[in-house]
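Second opinion, please. Pick holes in both lines of this record:
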Amino acid sequence: MFASLSKSVRQYMLVTFNYWNFTITDGALRMLVVLHFHGLGYSSLEIASLFLFYEFFGVVTNLIGGWLGARLGLNKTMNLGLGMQIIALSMLAVPTAMLTIPWVMAAQALSGIAKDLNKMSAKSSIKTLVPDEQQGALYKWIAILTGSKNALKGAGFFVGGLLLSLIGFKYAVLAMAAVLTLVFIGSVLSLEADMGKAKTKPKFSQLFSKSESINILSAARMFLFGARDVWFVIALPIYLGSVFGWDHSMVGGFLAAWTIAYGFVQGIAPKITGKSQGKVPDGHAALLWAGGLAIVTAGIAYAVQIGWQPELVIIGGLMLFGAIFAVNSSLHSYLIVSYAKGDGVSLDVGFYYMANAMGRLIGTILSGWVFQIAGLSACLWVSFVFLALTTLISLKLPKIEPVAAN
């Protein structure tokens, strides 16, 4: 049955399979590190520092990785990402006494490079598999890939919490490394050698995008993801455990449910934004959805600040945040691939995800620092400020006449 499918569909399925497996380990590793080191007595700011290199090298990787993808081919950058994640997981399977902050930061640096090589490769490859005139199909495929990735990242959060409870930190990372090794072997044997390779070798000086629309979208993306991670990465899991008294499995389960629901909404975003009526989105749609998310976040922040029904607000309010954020993220993911040049697409996509990684870096650092000095409500107010900036920046995104969704 697989062999009877078209070549482009087979390659899309292989890319997606690689991405899915990688994503589960990425989500599980994040949850393992947060919960394990909180259990060892690390403060929220110290835990945030463990992710500092993960996010910082994500910024560097997206910038250089897009250039490498255009020169070498996306299959090579995707496989490189898988290999580096296996090494990062293996580095953490050492005795607890060796899990010092510098060692864990080094392993997280490798994992950050691996994650963004893998993501950049997967997102860029779709542009090479879908004809330019089929914008509706492009939006649908991007939404499916992005939505399924985040649903599985949520499953990874749950897997991480569960594995920590059942077999402990060391054996959890070893099990994930073993699974990824099998995926890596299959990927090396199956992916096309020239996928995404530019017809002309791009120069290193071409790393930075010269497209105004991509620069504007990248700035909006940076603040959008900073707004999520400032409360989600460090503050929320520690808050759920220390204030609500939830155990590792409950914390992992809630964050898994949040991310799975978020991924599901991303997958159906084309229907929500009007593809069924023959429309594909433009900058105006991104503006409206960013503004709506900012308003919702302000309401959640105020309710948490005054202590009104904290469990209801945090659980229900942040699920609502996740649904609206998912549409924002899916819109951005479509717009960047739509704006990007077909030849050497990974250059533009890499630059954009560099801004995405910068937002995560800023959000992660602030999540540990702001939560430690001022609590969860302050993290949510910072999130609101970032979303207000996203909305203002989105005013400059190109507005186009409605385009038929093929």
